[in-house]
Amino acid sequence: MKQIQKILFPIDLAEKYEVFLPWVSTFAEKFGATVYVLYVTQDMSGFSTFYVPHAGIQGLQKEVMQAAEKEMQAAKQKFFGGFAKLETKVLSGKPADKVLEFAKSQKIDLIIMGAHGRKGLEKAIFGSVADRVVTGALCPVLTIHPDLA
Q1: Which of 49, 5, 52 lies closest to 30 in space, CA to CA?
Q2: What is this structure's pTM?
């Protein structure tokens, strides 16, 4: 049987990620795995189409990271108390890229994440983090539509 020692659970703090927790906890308990909860804040430096002093963007990015860290700690206490082995991390950058980099650097065995199934213009504008993770991951990826969780 394939052993799963490390599970990556990338979350979007703005979405209802807790609907996926039964899936994550089932795999974590079955294999005695460590769960890595990852949130990636969008890097703000690429959004400026007009002049903004570099220090202004850096300050904003720092505030975003601090707020995300605070939200992650609140989520950890509220939703992840029952996990025996848990680690949390907040990074900044392009979400799909950071998920893939983190999975590779930590030698993750399984990624479990939500997939919204966006189509058409919405997918063209927002893209699909899940699609990019599935095609770029070096380990299996379990994607779950929120309506099916």
Answers
A1: 5
A2: 0.86
